[in-house]
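Please, structure for the following, as tokens.
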Amino acid sequence: MHFGLDPEQRAFAASLNAMLTAADTPSVVRDWSRGEHDRGRALWRRVAGAGVFALAVPEAHEGLGPRPLELVLAFVELGRHAVPGPLVETVTAAALLTEPAAAKRLLPALASGEAMATVARAGGYALDGEAADIHLSLTAEGLHLAPGHGPVRASLDPARRLTPLAPGGELLSAHPPVTAALTLARLTTAAQALGVGLALLDRTVSYIGQRTQFGVPVGSFQAVKHQLADAKIALEFARPLLLGAALTTTEEDVAAAKVTACEAAYRTARTALQLHGAIGYTAEYDLSLWLTKARALRTAWGSPDECRDTVLNGAHHH
């Protein structure tokens, strides 16, 4: 399938990329990892100002959505620049809040960027509970507005700060659209992972270029080129799957896109780490911000195995 994005969609992605390039996200991420949210919130408001969260909110509640394809384009850029915060969770919250009273009360603040939301499934952890203003928990009874959160737990990615949510709280909806919301969570996570993979590829290609330029042979250069080509092919294969899944938004298509994009990003991370030698491991070096994100996104909102099961069950039902 060949997707031609229209000029407006291309311009939207390009303007987000330009804005985030100017924002010096690595230092914002470092603050966020320490629990300092000021610069992250300022960046969040700019992302919201570009219309990103409004894409997940219906027009009736001051949004522009739902527009899954534009959301995917936005999340690729957010991943490319390693933007911290509960990005996927805020979009997922918007998809969960369909009950009219709750929607009216909470969605406009999500669309405008005034509020960040996080979501946890029963017994699970919520991302960035300490930064979020709206804490939603999914239990057997339905969707609750949790009264708060517990202590921060360590994560694979220091910028992804996980917290349990306090039990109880107001029941917002007895029958929230869990499947649709989970599908959107997986779609945007996959897009973010693709962006992370593209950034890792770019950084590694330019690093290798510098190494050879200064007369330092990088192992067997042919082998290095092959590894980078393999990573690039995997990422390029994931992109049309992701755009296709944004158009169908079926559970199976989205799960397949998530496995493909997340595995491509993970593979690119491993190649990047190997080709950078051990410097990839040092936290001072920016590369690590993307490496840890590629690892964490791989299992966020559905591990590769869970997503493969979804794909196979879908095939079985058709």
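The chain is about 60% helix and 5% strand. Residues 121 and 138 are 5 Å apart (CA to CA).
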